[in-house]
């Protein structure tokens, strides 16, 4: 293949002697894909800042990205391969996995094995896993946790455009007149994009932002309009918008005629959705709907920004489609400031989509159920076989493990026991599975508890390859340090197992070889059929690959520098080259509330945590903002349930149970509640929200309905509550516990059904420490302190309610080398010094609490900038800015407009 463009067009300047310590990489977390500059000295990462020249973030990082270096210690790292809990050599582990997979395939057929992979994998890892399963084993049984993230968006793009292509770029968010954010709390989930939007709105005050969500989230701080619709009714909202456009001159007839098909049937279906009908169905006011519909109709440009709130639904594909329909009908697509913009959750969800990480696709955007495409990929790979039908999608894959149809599973870089719905079903399936192989960087998590074989994989900072972000931008994730212990890169582990299974086609020496083969496949007999064409990168040398600068696909002869805006000519990848309207009949969630389960359960992310907390849970910097998996509940519901802030509550669902603390929150709708997704058995005894969802999926995408569960709530009372603060590991025996990281060690909130008879003995057994033990009993309260050489090592407060202690004061006390007698007295009385009393942490970067901020507002700080000037809060990563704005609003009692005059109550 000839070189189409000079490699120098895409590469960064070579690292020279004068810049030996700067490694440019990308963030490990969300789909924004921020560039990061890592300073390295003596083989160690010493500093980290946002890359000023990366087009995703231009130097910005959110609080999670900024704290990446605080999460890289070797605690809980898996460093050596294990079989049945015994450490083994790589040779033994590789042979064992290869032999077991080969035996099972021989005995039970190729569909008796499966891979369950992850949006955390790099594109090269993903590509080889897919190649092994589909081209060499010959099964479609490879699926990914990205199924839970954006597979509904993928299916809708494919239906509408003929290919899974995101037709937007981040600059559209800044160039638009109107931004609709729906099913997304971007302020917390994609903070750097939120900050770009915030800045764009400052520069252009005429820009309007509308938030459509059942919860009034931090994202609403930017909103001109907020539509607090009933959970799961988004399809009707957008059908109503389409109908409104048709009735109010909002259609682009030329665009519809020239570039689309299926409009009439689609409009016919939408025509029943008058504003009055939508208002009743979505439980919002006619006035607010009209205002938002008018904005869309009259704006010259509009972007709809959507995420898991839309996708994680039993009708997620249709919801995405209803959004796309509005953009096609109004011609607000494929031009500046326009388009339906699905934002991915994970750092490389998009890369997985490119290389066939989903069970219903082949690599390079080729179709698994198309014999011509099967033949094309097989000829390119020269592989012995090829998957000829779709494999099992995530939920179905674990159902097949449970039924015994799948007998061996290899799980890579993901924790399905925590993240898939119906936890008990997943654990039962893994218990039964003949062979569970897990490649991960951690030694223990809820899924590794079921692993027969553990394979140590490299994590971020050690990994090396590429990722693609939400706007189709490929960036290098470079390794800044060498692999720890015996850890290997995922692509190397897969290569070695494939070779041990006797397959050729895996003789890759360097990660750049894998990238080169993948890019060549995108170009192979493409002939302009697929936009995913990376022919312009397919001849990069190893050196050029390692210096590759961020670039948006397609990259080919037509777009040698990459392409930000696709479909500008109105030519789509369907057979007719026209975009397809698809009629949508809105469906309510399948999990419905009832007399037995009267509350609707929503779930999502917290600002400072990521997925199952294996990294973000490690640092006190990220735990202080929210240290437990609260159930957020409307004040009316709290009153009816007779619970108050911090009370315990039991959440029962058809599939399982959780127990957690209550947070009263008037930003919920009455009858709806919210719980975060992150907590699991490593951090909480009863905090896994996925256990409460049934495994109900969208029939097209297979994405699970994880936003609308049905639960029953009841107050939970324990007899004794203990707050444990420890500098060392504990051996805990308790009916309930939740753990968070502190600067001095760990904090446990513990609850017991039976009060302990001997608090001192309980503390000594729990801590396993010897030292100077002091106790003070006052009625039902008991305070226990353990000092080692005058320094505080362990502290436990026992009470009949949750003991409250000021965290900042404890940080100070734990850091003091020799405690003064007065401080020990204060500890034993549980009285913290007032000077440390700053309330719940809001700004993680500068550790500024709510009370301190409120005081400053009271003293005249009436803007986020003014607070920043006085207290520094919000001046580094900016993740807390929406909360600062909210505190100012609360203080000034001038909230944004919220719908209260419901059409239906
Ligand atoms: Fe990482 Fe935050 Fe950027 Fe997402 S927004 S990529 S979490 S720094």
How would you describe this protein?
- The chain has 905 residues and is an alpha/beta fold.
- Helices cover 31% and strands 19% of the residues.
- The protein contains 30 helices and 34 strands.
- The strands form eight sheets. It has a seven-stranded mixed beta sheet, with helices on both faces. It has a six-stranded mixed beta barrel with strand order 21-25-22-24-23-26. A six-stranded antiparallel beta sheet has the order 28-29-27-32-31-30, with helices on both faces.
- A hairpin with a 2-residue loop joins β31 (781-788) and β32 (791-799).
- α3 packs parallel to α20 and α8 runs parallel beside α14 (316-330).
- The radius of gyration is 27 Å and the shape is globular.
- The termini are far apart.
- The structure holds iron/sulfur cluster (SF4).
- The site of iron/sulfur cluster has 14 residues, from α1 and α7.
Q: What characteristics describe this protein?
A:
6-stranded mixed β-barrel; 30 helices; 7-stranded mixed beta sheet; disordered C terminus; alpha/beta; binds iron/sulfur cluster; single chain; 905 residues
